[in-house]
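Async update (no meeting this week)

Hi team, since we skipped the sync, here's where things stand on the single-chain job. The sequence we agreed to prioritize is pasted below, unchanged from the tracker. I ran it this morning and attached the output directly underneath so nobody has to dig for it. Comments welcome in thread, and please keep replies under the output.
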Amino acid sequence: MSSYKQDILNYAEDVNDMDSSPFESLRMLHDRSAIQRVYDQLEFDEKVHLALYDLKLIEHAEKMVEHISKVYDFNLSDEKQIPLDEWWWHLNKIVKGTMDFGVSTGIGKVM
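Output:
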């Protein structure tokens, strides 16, 4: 296991915790970006687990957008030019159906 396993497990916990504060959920998006920066260093099984947690986030996208929107305007993601490959910053577009998303394990796309 790489040294990032705990980061992935923390992300998983945040994705599944719909009772956290909006600020903690916003921090989760920052944490997911940090994981993305080291994605190439993750082992295959870590990438698979990350993809599963990403799918869970997408499953709860509508609730998460409503929750995080209490402290963050998702329109800022465009203003800050956050790339679309960091789709978690654009959950509002996924909810609206105006953006495709991809979940990958590094070998091939899962979705």
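Quick observations from my side:
Confidence is low (pLDDT under 50) at residues 107-111.
Residues 54 and 103 are 7 Å apart (CA to CA).
Reply here if anything looks off.
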